[in-house]
Amino acid sequence: MRRTRRSTRAATPSRSCRATGRRRPRSASRPAEPGNSRAHPHSGSPGDAGLHPQRQGGTTREEIPPMKTMKGYVIQEKGRADWQKVPLPEIGPYDALVRPTAVATCTTDVHLIDSLALPNALGKVIGHEAVGVVEQVGDLVADFAAGDRVVLPAGLADWRHPRAQRGEGKFHQSKSPYFSDDPTNGGWFSEVVKCFDADSNLAHIPDGVTDVQAVFVDDMAATAFTGVERMEIQFGEVVVVLGVGPVGLMGVAAAALRGAGRIVAVDSRLDRMTLATQYGATDLIDYTQGDIYGQIMALTGGAHVDSVLVASGGSASDQITTAMRITKFGGHVSVVSGFFDDETVTLPMDVWNYGVMEKFLTAAQANQGRDYMERLLLLIANGKLDTQPLATHVLHGWDKVGASLELMRSRDQSVVKPVVIVD
To answer: How far is CA 242 from the centre of its chain?
Structure first.
């Protein structure tokens, strides 16, 4: 039987609840070790209003046995991460607890572990690509309830900060695990996770969209689509995508959806270049077979291209210089790569004609929040975009997170993205 909201909540003014598509609450059981997906939060300590929705009007699943800790995948020191016990998160009135059902590992996770580039990540649960099922919501959450399938955000924008009123919410992430000083504020690789401001940061997964498709929305698709938006592509323009890893492949798809007339994918890995053609690439360039600039000029008859998406690895100076050199004056270069090994970028002035001609260079951070993710999910639901081919390796069980990270670290050419299904 569907659990109804209590009268204390229903009486709150100006709130609505989505009544359709909600899953029937399952029987609660005590969380197990990694590998068992049926992990449920405890009912809280006596003074914890957020974890006592029966007293505060929030929604939860069936009565949940007490549990103080859970398993989380934590950066324990530079170069090492592993499972350990971590505190169960406690929610506030606007927050939600979510049980992850599928997660994806990322090169960013590998860089964070190996380099500790963001020191605040030390001692915290990592992971930023996940989908799951809502277990519990706070009293003032209006649009989500226990049983809803959701995408978790890659970044926790603070939508209540004044910068959000300027359209800059994603640039203020005081609650993001990688910037927050709170040691209990971690990422998504744990049995239960807390999402701040659920109504603004979670996204409903439409019926018919699988967990594997949805898990790539918050980062791979959002990063690429944001970067492509910055390129301001007009119908029929010529676009180059440098690097067709998972973000670059989504960049090809986004450029095609934006109406690019010619899309040139640059890489050296045959499997990924083949995928690029499936997503809309019209031309392929293997950078191991000669200078990229020369090969582009040969394709275009000497014409510079309208815009470039930089989604490649390597040296930041080399990649951005190449992108600027092949772009026309007045064109756009959008960088979505994370160059963790570079402290500086050097650009020769001739790519700007010594400063007297325009080229637009931007580093694009993925758009965040519910609205953007739900729009991307709508593309998937209606057959306009399919993220499934990114999942070249599907593993099962929490205990496979380490193996999934090793696949990303291996640089095996057959690996695009591993996904871990939490069985």
So the answer is: 20
153-205 pLDDT, tens per residue?
Answer: 998 888 888 988 888 888 888 888 777 778 778 899 999 999 999 999 999 99
Count of C-beta atoms within a 10 Å radius of residue 5: 18
Separation CA 280–CA 110 (nearest Å): 29
Q: Are the beta carbons of 104 and 129 closer than 8 angstroms?
A: yes
The amino acid sitting at 26 is: R
If you search the block for the tokens 């390796």, which residue do you land on? 393
Predicted confidence (pLDDT) per residue in 381-422, tens digit = 999 999 999 999 999 999 999 999 999 999 898 999 999 999
CB-count exposure of residue 81 (10 Å: 0-12, 13-18, 19+): buried
Q: Is the C-alpha dihedral spanning 371, 375, 381, 387 positive or negative?
A: negative
The mean pLDDT value of the chain amounts to 86
- Judged against a pLDDT cut of 80, whether residue 98 lies above it is answered with yes
Whether residue 63 is found in the same domain as residue 35: yes
Amino acid at 25: P
* Cα 20 to Cα 22: distance, rounded to the nearest angstrom: 6
- CA 95, CA 144: separation in Å to the nearest integer? 10
311 lies in the same domain as 417: no
Quickly tell me which residue has 């990114």 as its tokens. Answer: 390
Residue 184 in contact with residue 175, Cβ under 8 Å? no
Letter string b/e over residues 85-117, b meaning 16 or more CB atoms within 10 A of that residue's CB: ebebbbbeebbbbbbbbbbbbbbbbbbbbeeee
Residues 190 and 231 in one domain: no
219 contact partners, CB below 8 Å, separation of at least 6: 104, 106, 128, 129, 154, 366
> Does one domain contain both 304 and 353?
yes
* Residue 237 near residue 214, CB atoms below 8 Å: no
**CA-derived radius of gyration, the chain:** 22
In 156-201, where does DSSP find H-type helix? 198-201
Q: So what's the pLDDT on residue 8?
A: 34
Whether the Cβ atoms of residue 151 and residue 202 lie closer than 8 Å to each other: yes
What gap in Å lies between CA 148 and CA 138, rounded to an integer? Answer: 14
Question: For the chain, how many residues are written?
Answer: 423
Instruction: Check whether residue 204 and residue 283 sit in a common domain.
Output: no
